[in-house]
Design brief:
2 helices; Jelly Rolls; alpha+beta; 18% helix; 177 residues
Length: 177
């Protein structure tokens, strides 16, 4: 009798697990697209002080433009993650006074808190361009449902700098829809 009850429980659990797996499989995003915010310019107006100095860029989110011919009315991004982040120093010509960078997303939507996407710390040497390390936990899916997002690049300066600084970034996202 106990064996029969145990067998019934096991069979029921297997059926539920298979059903959940099949449901997940059927609802999985069908398409993937790479989307890059290219050559975003960040202006830091001097004087700049030692430590954290943020600059921002307002990025318009237009799924029709992003998805192109794949766009259909009502389509939603089901998963969005940052895959690659590159920042280069335009003026001055190297990161001589900057030792760390953090890129984040923010929104006017009060339900979305600022999301840190990538970081590099420390920046070694007097490099012209650096590759930031994307966060494995950062998921920006909800930001792609907004009309616009704020791309924030926080530069950590080693010392006070009495000059303007210009950085340029490119950020590649993998979108599933």
């Amino acid at each position: 009798m106990k064996k029969k009850i145990l067998r019934t429980i096991i069979v029921g659990a297997v059926i539920i697990a298979l059903g959940a797996w099949l449901f997940k499989l059927l609802n999985a995003p069908k398409n993937t697209k790479s989307f890059t915010l290219k050559d975003i310019q960040f202006e830091y107006a001097g004087p700049l002080f030692q430590g954290s100095n943020p600059a921002q860029y307002v990025a318009k989110i237009d799924l029709k433009e992003i998805l192109g011919s794949d766009y259909k009315a009502g389509i939603k991004i089901k998963n969005a993650v940052l895959k690659n982040a590159t920042v280069e120093c335009m003026d001055p010509s190297s990161f001589q006074d900057i030792n760390a960078l953090v890129v984040s997303f923010a929104s006017d939507n009060p339900d979305l808190s600022m999301q840190e996407l990538a970081v590099i710390n420390p920046i070694k040497g007097k490099l012209k361009s650096v590759q930031l390390k994307p966060s494995k936990e950062a998921n920006v899916t909800d930001y792609f449902a907004e009309k616009q997002v704020y791309v924030i690049l926080d530069a950590s300066f080693l010392k006070d700098v009495n000059a303007n600084v210009t950085l340029k970034g490119s950020f590649e996202f993998e979108l599933k829809y």
